[in-house]
Specification:
Elements lengths: L24 H12 L4 E4 L6 H14 L3 E6 L6 H17 L4 H9 L10 H11 L4 H19 L3 E6 L11 H9 L5 E7 L2 H9 L10 E2 L14 H14 L6 H11 L3 H17 L7 H14 L1 H11 L5 H10 L14 H13 L3 E5 L2 E4 L2 H10 L9
Parallel strand pairs: 1-4, 1-5, 2-3, 3-4
Antiparallel strand pairs: 6-7
The chain binds adenosine-5'-triphosphate (ATP) and magnesium ion.
Length: 392
């Protein structure tokens, strides 16, 4: 008997399966083709717009086309050995078609009796990574693996390094070592991903920095000229289909209402839809109305309170960011003299630049800015008027 596990109807939080990945088909196709061509790509973009979901699906497709792939979340690695081992483990999983190969190799290298589970040629390949010795050596061994694999198998190897900016915390000169090891890797393509756009742009875009011009930026948020790169028509088709699956109906006017409220931000939109669906299911309601969208928005905003509060705290680490962000959220003039203390003009400019670099605000016209995420702006506006926050 087969057992099919269904995920949530509108998944929020982590990477989503392909069928819930709205409006990224063109982008994914192009990404896959370019990586298959051996191009190195930089995919930097605002938080929660689907970078990880997209690359995981692209890697899946590339494997189906015969490529070997690796996916490494650099946030999880605390030192270079750990970072290298993650890379090796992921490559090995793609090669062997199963997880756990690296643990087997490690056991054998430590003198335990071979369980015979890892193929000899694979063991040989990863021995430099798992053998005890200087961590730096192990790391470099791992960085050489993609090339060695491509040479040995004749297959294209594609390596995705997610939250790549965090790799810098694994040790000194990590990026320099990577550059020198990645430079002449024939048959290998790298995708670098991350949400700290400013940091990544500097790493790849500034002369003298370790990875200057190593990868080509492949912008996901602007693709096709749509906000966050997703065509509203794709949202409409997706939402109609998803609600219909549950025998619920949604009209185009309500989809527009949702997208207006969320600005089309992928995660915020999904969060509102999830709230809407749960509310309708619990009340046995069949048709989405404007009122229901309003209720769902409030619920979603409350669910997003925690991540927003964390963002807000992060902004507090740099002087003036919070007061300037508040003005932008409120739509106030940036330089207006206000009773609560003036922000010096030069500081306003600096703060706006920093907020832009963080992917938080965007310029709409001369001297006018707005939040990329309307729901975050709404959260910020309500900070000063607790009465405006709707409590359950
Ligand atoms: N194209 C999309 N269609 C539907 N939902 C999406 C899409 N992209 C992102 N999401 C929503 O955003 C959530 C986060 O997606 P994902 O983790 O892939 O984004 P990310 O950009 O990698 O985020 P982070 O900045 O946290 O790394 C998903 O759980 C989903 O709810
Ligand atoms: Mg991600």
């Amino acid at each position: 008997m087969t057992h099919v596990l269904h995920g949530p109807h509108f998944p929020v939080g982590g990477p989503v399966p392909a069928e819930d990945l709205v409006g990224r088909e063109g982008y994914m196709r192009e990404t896959a083709a370019r990586l298959l061509d051996g191009e190195h790509l930089l995919i930097a973009g605002p938080r929660r717009i689907g970078k990880t979901s997209v690359i995981l699906e692209v890697l899946r497709r590339l494997r189906r086309r015969g490529a070997l792939t690796a996916y490494v979340d650099c946030l999880g690695a605390t030192d270079v050995r750990g970072l290298g081992e993650r890379l090796a483990a992921s490559l090995l999983a793609s090669l062997e078609g199963r997880d756990g190969g690296l643990e087997d190799a490690r056991g054998i290298a430590a003198g335990q009796r071979a369980k015979g589970r890892i193929r000899f040629e694979h063991l040989e390949l990863v021995l430099p990574v798992v053998k005890a010795g200087p961590a730096g050596r192990s790391f470099e061994g791992a960085l050489d693996l993609p090339r060695a694999l491509a040479a040995r198998t004749g297959k294209r190897v594609v390596v995705a390094l997610d939250e790549f900016q965090a790799a810098g915390r694994a040790g000194p000169r990590v990026f320099d070592v990577m550059r020198s090891r990645f430079q002449a890797q024939r048959g290998v393509a790298f995708a670098f991903l991350g949400s700290e756009e400013g940091v990544l742009e500097e790493l790849f875009g500034h002369k003298g920095r370790a990875l200057y011009r190593f990868a080509v930026a492949h912008d996901m948020a602007e693709a096709g000229g749509h906000r966050f790169g997703i065509d509203p028509a794709d949202w409409l088709a997706y939402l109609k289909r998803k609600f219909a699956q549950k025998r619920m109906a949604i009209e185009e006017s309500e989809v527009d209402r949702i997208l207006d409220a969320t600005g089309g931000h992928p995660q915020d939109t999904m969060q509102v839809c999830a709230a809407l669906y749960h509310f309708m299911r619990d009340g046995s309601l069949r048709a989405v109305t404007a009122d229901l969208v309003g209720v769902a928005f409030e619920v979603a905003l409350r669910e997003l309170e925690r991540p927003f509060a964390m963002h807000w705290t992060d902004l507090g680490e740099q002087k003036w960011l919070q007061p300037v962000a508040k003005r932008i959220a409120a739509g106030d003039a940036l330089y207006a003299a206000r009773a609560e203390g003036d922000v010096p003009r030069a500081e306003v400019l600096r703060a706006v630049t920093a907020l832009q670099a963080r992917g938080l605000v965007t310029r709409i016209s001369r001297g006018r800015y707005e939040f990329l995420e309307p729901m975050f702006a709404e959260h910020v506006r309500r900070l000063d008027s607790p009465a405006g926050i709707v409590r359950p």
